[in-house]
Design goal:
Two copies of one chain form a homodimer. Chain A is built from ten helices and eleven strands. Chain A is α/β, with parallel strands linked by helices. Chain A is globular, with a radius of gyration of 19 Å. Chains A and B meet through α1, α2, α3, β2 and β4 of A and α1, α2, α3, β2 and β4 of B.
Chain lengths: 272, 272
Protein backbone atom coordinates (compact mmCIF):
# COMPACT_ATOMS: atom_id res chain seq x y z
CA UNK A 1 0.00 0.00 0.00
CA UNK A 2 1.10 3.53 -0.56
CA UNK A 3 2.19 5.77 2.24
CA UNK A 4 0.04 8.47 3.76
CA UNK A 5 -1.67 10.81 1.38
CA UNK A 6 -2.36 13.50 3.95
CA UNK A 7 0.36 15.79 2.67
CA UNK A 8 -0.91 15.04 -0.80
CA UNK A 9 -4.34 16.36 0.12
CA UNK A 10 -2.98 19.51 1.69
CA UNK A 11 -0.54 20.27 -1.08
CA UNK A 12 -2.93 19.14 -3.71
CA UNK A 13 -5.64 21.79 -3.58
CA UNK A 14 -4.22 23.27 -6.76
CA UNK A 15 -4.15 19.95 -8.55
CA UNK A 16 -7.85 19.20 -8.74
CA UNK A 17 -8.60 16.78 -11.52
CA UNK A 18 -5.45 15.44 -13.00
CA UNK A 19 -3.67 17.63 -15.46
CA UNK A 20 -5.89 20.62 -14.79
CA UNK A 21 -3.02 22.58 -13.29
CA UNK A 22 -1.07 22.54 -16.53
CA UNK A 23 -3.40 24.96 -18.24
CA UNK A 24 -7.02 24.00 -18.96
CA UNK A 25 -6.00 21.81 -21.90
CA UNK A 26 -4.72 24.74 -23.95
CA UNK A 27 -5.33 25.71 -27.55
CA UNK A 28 -3.74 22.53 -28.89
CA UNK A 29 -6.07 20.40 -26.80
CA UNK A 30 -9.14 22.31 -27.92
CA UNK A 31 -8.10 22.11 -31.57
CA UNK A 32 -7.56 18.41 -31.21
CA UNK A 33 -10.99 17.98 -29.64
CA UNK A 34 -12.70 19.66 -32.56
CA UNK A 35 -11.57 17.24 -35.25
CA UNK A 36 -10.39 14.30 -33.15
CA UNK A 37 -7.00 15.23 -34.56
CA UNK A 38 -6.01 11.62 -35.05
CA UNK A 39 -5.87 11.76 -38.80
CA UNK A 40 -5.57 14.47 -41.40
CA UNK A 41 -7.92 14.65 -44.37
CA UNK A 42 -5.62 12.49 -46.46
CA UNK A 43 -5.60 9.68 -43.94
CA UNK A 44 -6.28 7.11 -46.61
CA UNK A 45 -3.37 8.09 -48.80
CA UNK A 46 -1.35 4.92 -49.26
CA UNK A 47 2.03 4.77 -47.63
CA UNK A 48 1.47 7.58 -45.17
CA UNK A 49 3.15 7.02 -41.87
CA UNK A 50 1.03 6.92 -38.75
CA UNK A 51 1.61 10.04 -36.77
CA UNK A 52 3.18 11.94 -39.64
CA UNK A 53 1.81 14.67 -41.85
CA UNK A 54 0.16 16.60 -39.06
CA UNK A 55 2.44 19.59 -39.25
CA UNK A 56 4.59 18.16 -36.48
CA UNK A 57 7.83 17.14 -38.12
CA UNK A 58 9.21 15.98 -34.80
CA UNK A 59 6.49 13.41 -34.13
CA UNK A 60 7.39 9.79 -33.53
CA UNK A 61 5.01 7.15 -34.83
CA UNK A 62 4.24 3.96 -32.94
CA UNK A 63 2.41 1.30 -34.95
CA UNK A 64 0.55 -1.00 -32.55
CA UNK A 65 -0.35 -4.18 -34.43
CA UNK A 66 -3.71 -5.72 -33.51
CA UNK A 67 -4.87 -9.12 -34.74
CA UNK A 68 -7.74 -11.44 -34.00
CA UNK A 69 -7.05 -13.05 -30.61
CA UNK A 70 -4.51 -10.55 -29.23
CA UNK A 71 -4.36 -9.97 -25.47
CA UNK A 72 -5.80 -6.59 -24.45
CA UNK A 73 -3.38 -5.69 -21.66
CA UNK A 74 -0.35 -6.59 -23.83
CA UNK A 75 -1.40 -3.76 -26.13
CA UNK A 76 -2.91 -1.27 -23.70
CA UNK A 77 -0.15 -1.38 -21.06
CA UNK A 78 2.57 0.11 -23.26
CA UNK A 79 0.00 2.19 -25.17
CA UNK A 80 -0.99 3.99 -21.98
CA UNK A 81 2.62 4.93 -21.27
CA UNK A 82 3.72 5.80 -24.81
CA UNK A 83 0.69 7.80 -25.92
CA UNK A 84 1.60 10.65 -23.54
CA UNK A 85 5.30 10.87 -24.40
CA UNK A 86 5.81 14.25 -26.10
CA UNK A 87 5.75 13.99 -29.88
CA UNK A 88 4.66 10.35 -29.88
CA UNK A 89 1.52 9.19 -31.65
CA UNK A 90 0.36 5.60 -31.22
CA UNK A 91 -1.75 4.22 -34.05
CA UNK A 92 -3.53 0.89 -33.94
CA UNK A 93 -3.03 -1.10 -37.14
CA UNK A 94 -4.56 -4.38 -38.30
CA UNK A 95 -5.13 -6.28 -41.53
CA UNK A 96 -8.37 -4.33 -41.85
CA UNK A 97 -9.53 -1.14 -40.14
CA UNK A 98 -12.21 -1.60 -37.50
CA UNK A 99 -12.88 -3.66 -34.37
CA UNK A 100 -10.42 -6.45 -33.53
CA UNK A 101 -11.40 -9.00 -30.88
CA UNK A 102 -9.17 -10.15 -28.06
CA UNK A 103 -8.31 -13.72 -27.11
CA UNK A 104 -11.37 -14.12 -24.88
CA UNK A 105 -13.67 -12.55 -27.45
CA UNK A 106 -15.23 -10.34 -24.77
CA UNK A 107 -13.49 -7.13 -25.79
CA UNK A 108 -12.70 -5.37 -29.05
CA UNK A 109 -10.28 -2.54 -29.74
CA UNK A 110 -10.58 -0.51 -32.91
CA UNK A 111 -7.78 -0.63 -35.47
CA UNK A 112 -7.52 2.87 -36.95
CA UNK A 113 -5.47 1.89 -39.97
CA UNK A 114 -4.95 -1.09 -42.26
CA UNK A 115 -1.46 -2.58 -42.60
CA UNK A 116 -1.54 -2.01 -46.39
CA UNK A 117 -1.65 1.74 -45.74
CA UNK A 118 1.33 1.82 -43.38
CA UNK A 119 4.83 1.47 -44.77
CA UNK A 120 6.87 3.16 -42.09
CA UNK A 121 6.80 3.62 -38.33
CA UNK A 122 9.42 4.72 -35.86
CA UNK A 123 8.32 2.03 -33.43
CA UNK A 124 6.61 -1.28 -34.13
CA UNK A 125 4.82 -2.84 -31.18
CA UNK A 126 3.47 -6.41 -31.44
CA UNK A 127 1.35 -7.65 -28.51
CA UNK A 128 0.92 -11.30 -27.65
CA UNK A 129 -2.27 -13.25 -27.70
CA UNK A 130 -3.97 -16.55 -27.07
CA UNK A 131 -2.86 -19.79 -28.70
CA UNK A 132 -5.21 -19.53 -31.66
CA UNK A 133 -4.38 -15.92 -32.51
CA UNK A 134 -0.63 -16.24 -32.06
CA UNK A 135 -0.44 -19.53 -33.96
CA UNK A 136 -2.27 -17.92 -36.88
CA UNK A 137 0.09 -14.95 -36.84
CA UNK A 138 3.11 -17.28 -36.67
CA UNK A 139 1.94 -18.79 -39.96
CA UNK A 140 0.83 -15.58 -41.70
CA UNK A 141 3.33 -14.81 -44.47
CA UNK A 142 1.61 -11.52 -45.32
CA UNK A 143 1.89 -10.35 -41.73
CA UNK A 144 5.55 -11.38 -41.67
CA UNK A 145 6.28 -9.39 -44.84
CA UNK A 146 4.63 -6.32 -43.33
CA UNK A 147 6.52 -6.73 -40.05
CA UNK A 148 9.84 -7.06 -41.91
CA UNK A 149 9.05 -3.98 -44.01
CA UNK A 150 8.30 -1.85 -40.95
CA UNK A 151 11.30 -3.28 -39.10
CA UNK A 152 13.67 -2.34 -41.96
CA UNK A 153 13.33 1.37 -41.16
CA UNK A 154 12.10 1.33 -37.55
CA UNK A 155 14.06 2.85 -34.71
CA UNK A 156 12.65 0.25 -32.32
CA UNK A 157 10.87 -3.04 -33.00
CA UNK A 158 9.16 -4.34 -29.88
CA UNK A 159 6.88 -7.05 -28.56
CA UNK A 160 5.01 -8.02 -25.43
CA UNK A 161 4.37 -11.59 -24.27
CA UNK A 162 3.95 -14.09 -27.15
CA UNK A 163 4.35 -11.19 -29.57
CA UNK A 164 8.03 -12.17 -29.64
CA UNK A 165 7.05 -15.49 -31.25
CA UNK A 166 5.45 -13.49 -34.06
CA UNK A 167 8.57 -11.34 -34.48
CA UNK A 168 10.60 -14.56 -34.42
CA UNK A 169 8.39 -16.22 -37.03
CA UNK A 170 8.98 -13.19 -39.24
CA UNK A 171 12.70 -13.97 -38.98
CA UNK A 172 13.67 -11.04 -36.79
CA UNK A 173 15.10 -12.83 -33.75
CA UNK A 174 17.64 -15.30 -35.20
CA UNK A 175 20.46 -15.70 -32.71
CA UNK A 176 19.21 -12.82 -30.58
CA UNK A 177 18.53 -12.78 -26.83
CA UNK A 178 14.79 -12.34 -26.22
CA UNK A 179 11.99 -13.06 -23.79
CA UNK A 180 8.32 -14.01 -24.02
CA UNK A 181 5.40 -15.26 -21.94
CA UNK A 182 6.62 -17.66 -19.25
CA UNK A 183 4.66 -20.64 -20.58
CA UNK A 184 5.94 -20.04 -24.11
CA UNK A 185 9.67 -19.83 -23.42
CA UNK A 186 10.44 -23.12 -25.23
CA UNK A 187 8.94 -21.67 -28.41
CA UNK A 188 11.53 -18.90 -28.59
CA UNK A 189 14.16 -21.50 -29.45
CA UNK A 190 11.99 -22.77 -32.32
CA UNK A 191 12.08 -19.32 -33.91
CA UNK A 192 15.83 -19.07 -33.46
CA UNK A 193 16.01 -16.77 -30.43
CA UNK A 194 17.87 -17.31 -27.19
CA UNK A 195 15.58 -17.13 -24.16
CA UNK A 196 16.93 -14.58 -21.72
CA UNK A 197 15.29 -13.83 -18.36
CA UNK A 198 14.00 -10.35 -17.68
CA UNK A 199 10.87 -8.19 -17.67
CA UNK A 200 12.18 -7.01 -21.03
CA UNK A 201 15.27 -7.75 -23.09
CA UNK A 202 16.91 -5.20 -25.40
CA UNK A 203 18.97 -6.58 -28.32
CA UNK A 204 20.04 -3.93 -30.78
CA UNK A 205 16.87 -2.17 -31.81
CA UNK A 206 14.62 -5.04 -30.75
CA UNK A 207 13.01 -5.05 -27.32
CA UNK A 208 10.95 -8.05 -26.22
CA UNK A 209 8.92 -7.98 -23.00
CA UNK A 210 7.81 -10.88 -20.82
CA UNK A 211 4.14 -11.72 -20.33
CA UNK A 212 1.14 -9.38 -20.43
CA UNK A 213 1.77 -6.87 -17.60
CA UNK A 214 5.50 -6.70 -18.45
CA UNK A 215 4.50 -4.43 -21.32
CA UNK A 216 4.10 -1.62 -18.78
CA UNK A 217 7.72 -1.99 -17.61
CA UNK A 218 8.87 -2.19 -21.24
CA UNK A 219 6.76 0.84 -22.15
CA UNK A 220 8.45 2.93 -19.47
CA UNK A 221 11.87 1.79 -20.67
CA UNK A 222 10.91 2.67 -24.24
CA UNK A 223 9.66 6.08 -23.05
CA UNK A 224 13.14 6.74 -21.67
CA UNK A 225 14.63 5.79 -25.06
CA UNK A 226 12.16 7.85 -27.12
CA UNK A 227 12.35 10.87 -24.80
CA UNK A 228 14.50 10.74 -21.68
CA UNK A 229 14.49 9.39 -18.14
CA UNK A 230 12.70 12.43 -16.75
CA UNK A 231 9.76 11.80 -19.05
CA UNK A 232 9.77 8.09 -18.25
CA UNK A 233 9.83 8.80 -14.50
CA UNK A 234 6.96 11.25 -14.93
CA UNK A 235 4.98 8.70 -16.93
CA UNK A 236 5.46 6.16 -14.16
CA UNK A 237 3.81 8.66 -11.82
CA UNK A 238 1.21 9.58 -14.44
CA UNK A 239 -0.02 5.97 -14.51
CA UNK A 240 0.53 5.71 -10.73
CA UNK A 241 2.68 2.64 -11.29
CA UNK A 242 3.57 1.86 -7.70
CA UNK A 243 2.58 -1.79 -7.86
CA UNK A 244 1.56 -3.74 -4.79
CA UNK A 245 0.54 -7.18 -6.05
CA UNK A 246 -1.56 -9.01 -3.47
CA UNK A 247 0.46 -12.23 -3.91
CA UNK A 248 3.99 -13.22 -4.85
CA UNK A 249 3.00 -15.53 -7.67
CA UNK A 250 3.78 -13.37 -10.70
CA UNK A 251 6.41 -15.64 -12.27
CA UNK A 252 6.83 -19.43 -12.53
CA UNK A 253 9.97 -19.13 -10.39
CA UNK A 254 7.79 -17.81 -7.56
CA UNK A 255 4.53 -19.70 -8.01
CA UNK A 256 4.04 -23.33 -7.03
CA UNK A 257 3.08 -26.13 -9.42
CA UNK A 258 -0.59 -26.03 -8.41
CA UNK A 259 -0.81 -22.29 -9.16
CA UNK A 260 0.94 -22.84 -12.49
CA UNK A 261 -1.44 -25.62 -13.51
CA UNK A 262 -4.46 -23.54 -12.52
CA UNK A 263 -3.15 -20.52 -14.47
CA UNK A 264 -2.82 -22.63 -17.62
CA UNK A 265 -6.31 -24.04 -17.09
CA UNK A 266 -7.84 -20.56 -16.63
CA UNK A 267 -6.14 -19.39 -19.83
CA UNK A 268 -7.33 -22.40 -21.81
CA UNK A 269 -10.88 -22.21 -20.48
CA UNK A 270 -11.19 -18.50 -21.25
CA UNK A 271 -9.94 -18.82 -24.83
CA UNK A 272 -12.44 -18.73 -27.63
CA UNK B 1 14.21 -8.64 -13.24
CA UNK B 2 12.97 -12.17 -12.84
CA UNK B 3 15.23 -14.97 -11.79
CA UNK B 4 16.69 -17.53 -14.14
CA UNK B 5 14.31 -19.20 -16.53
CA UNK B 6 16.56 -22.13 -17.36
CA UNK B 7 14.58 -24.59 -15.28
CA UNK B 8 11.47 -23.08 -16.82
CA UNK B 9 12.70 -23.97 -20.28
CA UNK B 10 13.60 -27.50 -19.32
CA UNK B 11 10.42 -28.15 -17.41
CA UNK B 12 8.38 -26.19 -19.87
CA UNK B 13 8.62 -28.31 -23.01
CA UNK B 14 5.12 -29.52 -22.31
CA UNK B 15 3.74 -26.01 -21.95
CA UNK B 16 4.25 -24.71 -25.48
CA UNK B 17 2.01 -21.77 -26.17
CA UNK B 18 0.28 -20.66 -23.09
CA UNK B 19 -2.67 -22.66 -22.02
CA UNK B 20 -2.11 -25.34 -24.64
CA UNK B 21 -1.28 -27.94 -22.03
CA UNK B 22 -4.71 -27.70 -20.50
CA UNK B 23 -6.36 -29.38 -23.44
CA UNK B 24 -6.20 -27.80 -26.91
CA UNK B 25 -8.82 -25.25 -25.92
CA UNK B 26 -11.44 -27.93 -25.40
CA UNK B 27 -14.97 -28.20 -26.67
CA UNK B 28 -16.09 -25.09 -24.81
CA UNK B 29 -13.39 -23.02 -26.46
CA UNK B 30 -14.25 -24.28 -29.93
CA UNK B 31 -17.96 -23.75 -29.38
CA UNK B 32 -17.28 -20.23 -28.21
CA UNK B 33 -15.21 -19.47 -31.29
CA UNK B 34 -18.04 -20.44 -33.60
CA UNK B 35 -20.50 -17.82 -32.42
CA UNK B 36 -18.22 -15.40 -30.55
CA UNK B 37 -20.22 -16.56 -27.57
CA UNK B 38 -20.40 -13.09 -26.12
CA UNK B 39 -24.11 -12.65 -26.62
CA UNK B 40 -27.02 -14.93 -27.27
CA UNK B 41 -29.51 -14.28 -30.05
CA UNK B 42 -31.67 -12.16 -27.77
CA UNK B 43 -28.81 -9.82 -26.90
CA UNK B 44 -30.94 -6.76 -27.52
CA UNK B 45 -33.76 -7.78 -25.23
CA UNK B 46 -34.18 -4.89 -22.82
CA UNK B 47 -33.28 -5.53 -19.26
CA UNK B 48 -31.19 -8.59 -19.89
CA UNK B 49 -28.19 -8.83 -17.64
CA UNK B 50 -24.77 -8.93 -19.22
CA UNK B 51 -23.36 -12.40 -18.97
CA UNK B 52 -26.69 -13.98 -18.15
CA UNK B 53 -28.98 -16.07 -20.26
CA UNK B 54 -26.27 -18.23 -21.75
CA UNK B 55 -27.32 -21.43 -20.07
CA UNK B 56 -24.77 -20.82 -17.35
CA UNK B 57 -26.76 -20.03 -14.25
CA UNK B 58 -23.62 -19.68 -12.18
CA UNK B 59 -22.13 -16.91 -14.30
CA UNK B 60 -21.19 -13.60 -12.72
CA UNK B 61 -21.66 -10.47 -14.79
CA UNK B 62 -19.24 -7.56 -14.70
CA UNK B 63 -20.49 -4.36 -16.34
CA UNK B 64 -17.49 -2.26 -17.41
CA UNK B 65 -18.72 1.29 -18.03
CA UNK B 66 -17.03 3.13 -20.90
CA UNK B 67 -17.53 6.82 -21.64
CA UNK B 68 -15.98 9.37 -23.94
CA UNK B 69 -12.58 10.26 -22.51
CA UNK B 70 -12.02 7.24 -20.24
CA UNK B 71 -8.47 6.00 -19.63
CA UNK B 72 -7.71 2.75 -21.46
CA UNK B 73 -5.54 1.06 -18.84
CA UNK B 74 -8.04 1.86 -16.05
CA UNK B 75 -10.51 -0.36 -17.89
CA UNK B 76 -8.25 -2.99 -19.43
CA UNK B 77 -6.13 -3.72 -16.32
CA UNK B 78 -8.96 -5.19 -14.24
CA UNK B 79 -10.67 -6.54 -17.38
CA UNK B 80 -7.64 -8.67 -18.19
CA UNK B 81 -7.72 -10.23 -14.72
CA UNK B 82 -11.47 -10.63 -14.32
CA UNK B 83 -12.32 -11.99 -17.79
CA UNK B 84 -10.57 -15.28 -17.02
CA UNK B 85 -12.07 -15.88 -13.57
CA UNK B 86 -14.31 -18.97 -13.87
CA UNK B 87 -17.93 -18.07 -14.47
CA UNK B 88 -17.22 -14.37 -14.92
CA UNK B 89 -18.21 -12.49 -18.05
CA UNK B 90 -17.10 -8.90 -18.50
CA UNK B 91 -19.30 -6.76 -20.75
CA UNK B 92 -18.41 -3.27 -21.92
CA UNK B 93 -21.32 -0.87 -21.56
CA UNK B 94 -21.72 2.75 -22.68
CA UNK B 95 -24.49 5.23 -23.39
CA UNK B 96 -24.52 3.84 -26.92
CA UNK B 97 -23.10 0.62 -28.32
CA UNK B 98 -20.01 1.01 -30.48
CA UNK B 99 -16.56 2.59 -30.32
CA UNK B 100 -15.77 4.81 -27.33
CA UNK B 101 -12.66 7.00 -27.47
CA UNK B 102 -10.13 7.31 -24.68
CA UNK B 103 -8.82 10.50 -23.09
CA UNK B 104 -6.07 10.95 -25.67
CA UNK B 105 -8.41 10.20 -28.57
CA UNK B 106 -5.85 7.82 -30.08
CA UNK B 107 -7.60 4.61 -29.07
CA UNK B 108 -11.17 3.32 -29.07
CA UNK B 109 -12.66 0.34 -27.29
CA UNK B 110 -15.98 -1.07 -28.40
CA UNK B 111 -18.95 -0.93 -26.02
CA UNK B 112 -20.92 -4.13 -26.58
CA UNK B 113 -24.08 -2.95 -24.86
CA UNK B 114 -25.99 0.25 -24.19
CA UNK B 115 -26.71 1.27 -20.60
CA UNK B 116 -30.47 1.37 -21.34
CA UNK B 117 -30.35 -2.38 -21.96
CA UNK B 118 -28.57 -3.28 -18.73
CA UNK B 119 -30.49 -3.21 -15.46
CA UNK B 120 -28.46 -5.61 -13.36
CA UNK B 121 -24.86 -6.68 -12.95
CA UNK B 122 -23.06 -8.56 -10.21
CA UNK B 123 -20.13 -6.19 -10.47
CA UNK B 124 -20.04 -2.60 -11.68
CA UNK B 125 -16.63 -1.30 -12.73
CA UNK B 126 -16.15 2.42 -13.48
CA UNK B 127 -12.76 3.44 -14.90
CA UNK B 128 -11.31 6.91 -14.57
CA UNK B 129 -10.54 9.28 -17.38
CA UNK B 130 -9.15 12.63 -18.38
CA UNK B 131 -10.47 15.92 -17.00
CA UNK B 132 -12.97 16.50 -19.76
CA UNK B 133 -14.46 13.01 -19.69
CA UNK B 134 -14.64 12.71 -15.91
CA UNK B 135 -16.04 16.20 -15.46
CA UNK B 136 -18.79 15.39 -17.95
CA UNK B 137 -19.61 12.16 -16.14
CA UNK B 138 -19.61 13.96 -12.77
CA UNK B 139 -22.41 16.16 -14.14
CA UNK B 140 -24.36 13.49 -16.02
CA UNK B 141 -27.59 12.83 -14.13
CA UNK B 142 -28.61 10.01 -16.49
CA UNK B 143 -25.33 8.24 -15.88
CA UNK B 144 -25.75 8.70 -12.13
CA UNK B 145 -29.25 7.19 -12.23
CA UNK B 146 -27.93 4.17 -14.14
CA UNK B 147 -25.01 3.75 -11.73
CA UNK B 148 -27.35 3.90 -8.73
CA UNK B 149 -29.71 1.36 -10.33
CA UNK B 150 -26.89 -1.13 -10.97
CA UNK B 151 -25.40 -0.46 -7.52
CA UNK B 152 -28.71 -1.24 -5.80
CA UNK B 153 -28.42 -4.95 -6.63
CA UNK B 154 -24.69 -5.34 -7.29
CA UNK B 155 -22.47 -7.59 -5.22
CA UNK B 156 -19.54 -5.25 -5.80
CA UNK B 157 -19.42 -1.68 -7.07
CA UNK B 158 -15.91 -0.69 -8.06
CA UNK B 159 -13.85 2.07 -9.63
CA UNK B 160 -10.33 2.75 -10.81
CA UNK B 161 -8.59 6.13 -10.65
CA UNK B 162 -10.94 9.11 -11.08
CA UNK B 163 -13.80 6.64 -11.55
CA UNK B 164 -14.36 7.09 -7.80
CA UNK B 165 -15.27 10.74 -8.43
CA UNK B 166 -18.02 9.48 -10.74
CA UNK B 167 -19.27 7.01 -8.12
CA UNK B 168 -19.12 9.86 -5.60
CA UNK B 169 -21.04 12.23 -7.85
CA UNK B 170 -23.72 9.56 -8.12
CA UNK B 171 -23.98 9.74 -4.33
CA UNK B 172 -22.45 6.38 -3.54
CA UNK B 173 -19.48 7.40 -1.41
CA UNK B 174 -20.96 9.68 1.26
CA UNK B 175 -18.97 9.25 4.46
CA UNK B 176 -17.09 6.27 3.08
CA UNK B 177 -13.33 5.69 2.95
CA UNK B 178 -12.15 5.68 -0.67
CA UNK B 179 -9.21 6.39 -2.92
CA UNK B 180 -8.67 7.88 -6.39
CA UNK B 181 -5.96 9.17 -8.72
CA UNK B 182 -3.19 10.87 -6.72
CA UNK B 183 -3.72 14.27 -8.32
CA UNK B 184 -7.47 14.12 -7.68
CA UNK B 185 -7.46 13.27 -3.99
CA UNK B 186 -8.88 16.68 -2.96
CA UNK B 187 -11.94 16.02 -5.11
CA UNK B 188 -12.96 12.97 -3.10
CA UNK B 189 -13.87 15.27 -0.24
CA UNK B 190 -16.11 17.29 -2.55
CA UNK B 191 -18.18 14.18 -3.28
CA UNK B 192 -18.42 13.33 0.40
CA UNK B 193 -15.83 10.55 0.63
CA UNK B 194 -12.91 10.27 3.03
CA UNK B 195 -9.60 9.91 1.20
CA UNK B 196 -7.82 6.81 2.44
CA UNK B 197 -4.38 5.73 1.22
CA UNK B 198 -3.99 2.40 -0.53
CA UNK B 199 -3.73 0.76 -3.93
CA UNK B 200 -7.41 -0.01 -3.34
CA UNK B 201 -9.85 0.61 -0.52
CA UNK B 202 -12.75 -1.72 0.31
CA UNK B 203 -15.74 -0.18 2.10
CA UNK B 204 -18.72 -2.48 2.33
CA UNK B 205 -19.43 -3.59 -1.20
CA UNK B 206 -17.59 -0.65 -2.74
CA UNK B 207 -13.97 -0.98 -3.81
CA UNK B 208 -12.11 2.05 -5.13
CA UNK B 209 -8.64 1.74 -6.65
CA UNK B 210 -5.91 4.37 -6.91
CA UNK B 211 -4.68 5.62 -10.28
CA UNK B 212 -4.58 3.79 -13.62
CA UNK B 213 -2.31 0.78 -13.01
CA UNK B 214 -3.80 0.21 -9.54
CA UNK B 215 -6.75 -1.37 -11.32
CA UNK B 216 -4.60 -4.48 -11.81
CA UNK B 217 -4.05 -4.85 -8.06
CA UNK B 218 -7.74 -4.20 -7.43
CA UNK B 219 -8.69 -6.70 -10.14
CA UNK B 220 -6.68 -9.42 -8.44
CA UNK B 221 -8.28 -8.61 -5.10
CA UNK B 222 -11.70 -8.74 -6.70
CA UNK B 223 -10.83 -12.08 -8.32
CA UNK B 224 -10.18 -13.44 -4.83
CA UNK B 225 -13.60 -12.15 -3.74
CA UNK B 226 -15.48 -13.48 -6.78
CA UNK B 227 -13.70 -16.83 -6.73
CA UNK B 228 -10.99 -17.56 -4.16
CA UNK B 229 -7.35 -16.80 -3.44
CA UNK B 230 -6.11 -19.75 -5.48
CA UNK B 231 -7.77 -18.34 -8.57
CA UNK B 232 -6.44 -14.85 -7.82
CA UNK B 233 -2.92 -16.20 -7.34
CA UNK B 234 -3.19 -18.10 -10.60
CA UNK B 235 -4.43 -14.99 -12.41
CA UNK B 236 -1.46 -13.03 -11.09
CA UNK B 237 0.75 -15.64 -12.78
CA UNK B 238 -1.48 -15.72 -15.87
CA UNK B 239 -0.83 -12.01 -16.48
CA UNK B 240 2.80 -12.46 -15.33
CA UNK B 241 2.34 -9.69 -12.80
CA UNK B 242 5.78 -9.68 -11.27
CA UNK B 243 6.33 -5.95 -11.65
CA UNK B 244 9.77 -4.42 -11.86
CA UNK B 245 9.22 -0.71 -12.47
CA UNK B 246 12.35 0.95 -13.83
CA UNK B 247 12.03 3.87 -11.37
CA UNK B 248 10.64 4.49 -7.90
CA UNK B 249 8.39 7.36 -8.89
CA UNK B 250 4.99 5.66 -8.94
CA UNK B 251 3.34 7.76 -6.24
CA UNK B 252 3.57 11.43 -5.23
CA UNK B 253 5.06 10.33 -1.90
CA UNK B 254 8.02 8.87 -3.83
CA UNK B 255 8.39 11.28 -6.76
CA UNK B 256 9.96 14.72 -6.47
CA UNK B 257 8.19 17.99 -7.29
CA UNK B 258 9.78 18.25 -10.75
CA UNK B 259 8.55 14.77 -11.70
CA UNK B 260 5.09 15.60 -10.38
CA UNK B 261 4.90 18.84 -12.39
CA UNK B 262 6.08 17.06 -15.54
CA UNK B 263 3.54 14.25 -15.05
CA UNK B 264 0.72 16.80 -14.85
CA UNK B 265 2.02 18.59 -17.94
CA UNK B 266 2.24 15.33 -19.94
CA UNK B 267 -1.33 14.49 -18.94
CA UNK B 268 -2.62 17.93 -19.91
CA UNK B 269 -0.73 18.03 -23.20
CA UNK B 270 -1.96 14.58 -24.23
CA UNK B 271 -5.62 15.33 -23.49
CA UNK B 272 -7.92 16.07 -26.35
Amino acid sequence: MNGSGETGIGAGRRRLLRGAVAGTLGAAGLAAASDHSAYPADRDAPGRDPGRGEGDASSLSVALLLYDGFTALDAVGPHEVLCRVPGVRVTTVARKEGPVRTDTGELALVAERATRDITRADVLLVPGGGDRGVTAMMEDADAHRWIRRIHRHSTWTTSVCTGSLILGSAGLLRGLPATTYWASRPYLEKVGAVYTPGRFVEAGKIITAAGVSAGIDMGLHLASRLADEKVAMAMQLAVEYDPDPPYDTGSPEKADAETEALALKLLADSAR
